Amino acid sequence: MSAPLQLALVVAMGENGAIGRNNALLWKLRTDMRRFRALTTGHPLIMGRKTWDSIGRPLPGRDTIVLSRNGAFAPQGVQVAHDLADALARAGACAARRGVDSAMVVGGAQIYAETLPIAARVHLTLVQDRPEADAFFPGGAAGAWRDAFVETWRQAHPAGPEDERPFVFIDLVRRG
Question: Positive or negative, the Cα torsion across 87, 92, 93, 97?
Fold first, then answer.
């Protein structure tokens, strides 16, 4: 019998909880993009349709599961789920096929809100910025959700030629 599927949220947010504006990222952070690739390659990805629209293609080495209520939505190279239970079942099958025990939730705000209560881990990139946005992580960067998790790792990165803003990588695991 295989281990139950674990969910890990992968999110970059500003100090104000901002995660996007006009269906786009708020920063250019190449270091964060490399970390995203390292964390997610080999794992199923669960994302909402707007996040899919912003990416626009399946990412190499990952199974993509897009949550959408639109029955006509059927892009090539991805699996479409119409509710969270369906997405989790699809992610579990993909994870078992790949020999991994976790799926990565990569946005957007509504999908984070649905999965945060059942997530085992959060891979947070906390960007030292408070940009205007129209999409926010539920509860923000310092929200009550943090009480359910313990920080296990932290690494600061200054702004530089590859990263327009300073940021901190923070890994958190669910208490208990």
Answer: positive
